[in-house]
Amino acid sequence: MTAASAYASLTSHFARASALSNAIGILQWDSDTMMPKGSVGTRADSLALLRVNHHAMITDPRIGDWLDSARHDDGLGTWELANIREIHRIYTVETALPGDLVEASSKAVSACEMTWRQAKQDANFAALLPTLQEVLRLQREIGAAKGEKLGLSAYDALLNDYEPGARAHRIDALFADLAAFLPGFTDAAIAHQSRLPAVAPLEGPFAVEAQRGLGLAMMRVLGFDFERGRLDVSAHPFCGGADNDVRITTHYDEADFARAFMGVMHETGHALYEQGRPQAYLHQPVGQARSMSVHESQSLLMEMQACRSREFITFAAPKMREAFGGSGPAWEAEAILRHYTQVKRGFIRIEADEATYPAHIILRYRLEKAMIGGDLALADLPGAWNDGMQELLGITPPNDRVGCLQDIHWPSGGWGYFPTYTLGAMTAAQLFDAAKRADGDVLPGIARGDFGPVVRWLRSNIHEQGSLHETDDLLTRATGRPLDASVFITHLRRRYLGEE
Amino acid sequence: MTAASAYASLTSHFARASALSNAIGILQWDSDTMMPKGSVGTRADSLALLRVNHHAMITDPRIGDWLDSARHDDGLGTWELANIREIHRIYTVETALPGDLVEASSKAVSACEMTWRQAKQDANFAALLPTLQEVLRLQREIGAAKGEKLGLSAYDALLNDYEPGARAHRIDALFADLAAFLPGFTDAAIAHQSRLPAVAPLEGPFAVEAQRGLGLAMMRVLGFDFERGRLDVSAHPFCGGADNDVRITTHYDEADFARAFMGVMHETGHALYEQGRPQAYLHQPVGQARSMSVHESQSLLMEMQACRSREFITFAAPKMREAFGGSGPAWEAEAILRHYTQVKRGFIRIEADEATYPAHIILRYRLEKAMIGGDLALADLPGAWNDGMQELLGITPPNDRVGCLQDIHWPSGGWGYFPTYTLGAMTAAQLFDAAKRADGDVLPGIARGDFGPVVRWLRSNIHEQGSLHETDDLLTRATGRPLDASVFITHLRRRYLGEE
């Protein structure tokens, strides 16, 4: 085998693996949007088989040999070398775990998810404890096994799956800046808005078809390519599908259009990233989205930075009035802007506003890091949760249903994922700021419903870069420096305190 | 390996193969109903990979060993033995072809289908000839290879793929009876209807949502299980999906609801068969539908036998009037019945009515058998087609677009499929007749919108039998004798000549 043929073998192998993961993506989408409930079991069998096949492909021992040979290939360019780096990363992580650990974890997660639904409903943490204990035990084992191979702590190894290159000591510093800022800021923001006139409610009902029509129209404004994607309905909104077939979903509430509207803008941000990945490497590891935080930065850049701006709301308000036949003071752009920038302390992460959301994340990050590190016993989680809520948000949950039982992440084995939400929010602020500096037409464009300037900047600085660079490098190239909290904090002070 | 473990290995292997074919079924459905057009290439890669994997599974050499061992298993019951018979059948046929022949045929078909679309549009048979010649050459080779392994002629071997156990000499006899009957009958039926008062047209437009609502309501009447299936829209209606997830489609025309309405009843007939297959063997070969003609018999039993009966139309007419706000003479049950039982000579198979449809099929059957057998040169097809149309239907196509270029079956490599349509129509007549004899409440049930009696009879006599019996045996058990043309002919004489 020559070095050149080794690289060719790698790319054709991973292109086939991508054909399989594309199939999985569409079947998963179908499960969440279209599938009749009587076929849950049949579908689970199909997805399990394809996932096993996919795992077998990306842990194929020939990959190790091909990687060894391809490293001696002098004819490879920057993208090819980065592709080898990404393939090596995937192969290392995926082969780090013994098969019985993968299977034990999969079974523990299934059992725990099922228990969680009932335990949450009953606000009964004790009922969840045994199965969640098992999930945690296996996550610690997985983190240790991966960490040993990567030379990382268990928590860093778990984090690394979602956020390659991220390390807890960096996140500690970033989140410390935010944690110092947030409590006082939240007080100030709430005080600030209390001095403004009350916001009149937007009165419904809002017909689903009108909501859908408005959402589709705004997706077009943002630049969603309907030749390579769709909008549908699911219980929990997501962006999924396949290469060149990006499927986003939303969930309509006839009593409140505002939430689904901004949800669609959020998922469209994810979708633009997926649709903008480099076509030449679309099916290769180097052509994938860089990380979860970068992905979340794209959704939050659209939802929080661009679409909650005064410029966008001024553009969108007449379209909203037209879609729903709205009139009167509640439908003025300024009122809708106020509606979309309310700050309110609450117990539930997924209902939190932009200003209080990071507190929810910092809490979860601290707790999961302590549990994986062995510094917090799972049995002590409810108390630690409530203490943290009091410290960060100044409120204490009345029960565990709206406390430590609210999220599916831990029961489903997603430890190390939470920080990417707030890293994404900070990244979004830093990127949007850089885009505005680079092109003075970004905000004026948004004001006239022309997302061309901002999307072009994102295309060349983020989307088309795929996984060519590590995250720090990507952000430094795009914004001049690695991630810090300052731009996000400035953004919050401007929007919620009316500064400058 | 013990004989018992061999059988267990077979069933677990084929259950996994079925998890794969279920995935393919849903992805194929998605391609035809949901997929944005920009992802055609990505989807083709996914489907090709899954099909290659599926073919590799069902030709796994271990199957041969397991079959050898399982034959010595004394502990197997009727269903298990039939499962072994079906697995052996699949394994024999699927391993009959060398890989390069499969690949050559797949490529020839792709090229020919592409040429066919344009050639049909241009009514240019000469443009199709070279690529269709190659498809035919490879079909003859495939038929010869399979035939050698099965001890069959090439045509019988091709036919056997769609209709296990069927042989041309039997079909020749059945179709000879029909061919002798049809021309005179068609004259008589047209003369008969010309003596009746003219049928007033049903005036549209018919809103798609109203059509969809009526179709869903009637699917419920027939017994479609929406917990294990869906109704959607595609360019060409079909019944597909997966085990326990049966997806039918239709195509709405706002100027004509009647066609989609009966199309939905047709696909619901297919779907009832799929939803009624034995749950204990749902993922095994013995639990599959018996053959294409038996499948078509289930759709035609619903569409032609049950839903074009006076009893059903009398029940359905008020629902139609309600759905579309129809009133006046055209909306009387008798007028709608006349609308649904018009006989008219035409060039196009898919537009043909129940009475003239068999002539289209007999023509194609004779021609494809002659071409596979080497008795008709492909270059002589247009002339032979037009001669046959004149003989069987008394009309001559003005060009090949509405003649021998109209169907995709031959360009797409579907040789041996055509006769199953008319075998299905005959089987439907024979089954419906037997159901009515067995349960006097079949027709009265349909008249009151209760399909329980007919569906219960089909469930126990056909659906739940899966592939337990060979087709002749299945029909003999259900109706007392193998297939013949007499019941179908009697049905046609009664409905279209008003006899008895």
Structure commentary:
The structure is a homodimer of 500-residue chains. The mean pLDDT of chain A is 96. The first copy, chain A, has 20 helices and three strands. In chain A, strand 2 (239-242) and strand 3 (245-250) form a beta hairpin. In chain A, strands 1-3-2 form a three-stranded mixed β-sheet, with helices on both faces. The first copy, chain A, folds into two domains: 3-95; 123-203 and 272-500, Neurolysin, domain 3 (Orthogonal Bundle). With 500 residues, chain A is mostly helical. The first copy, chain A, has helices at 3-33, 40-58, 61-70, 78-94, 99-121, 125-150, 154-162, 168-194, 208-222, 257-276, 292-306, 310-324, 333-340, 357-373, 381-393, 419-438, 442-447, 452-461, 471-479, 486-497; strands at residues 229-233, 239-242, 245-250. Chain A is globular and about 70 Å long. In chain A, 64% of the residues lie in helices and 3% in strands. Chain A binds chain B through residues 15-16, 19-20, 22-23, 26-27, 30, 34-39, 41-43, 45-50, 53, 225-230, 242-245, 283, and chain B through 15-16, 19-20, 22-23, 26-27, 30, 34-39, 41-43, 45-50, 53, 225-230, 242-245, 283.
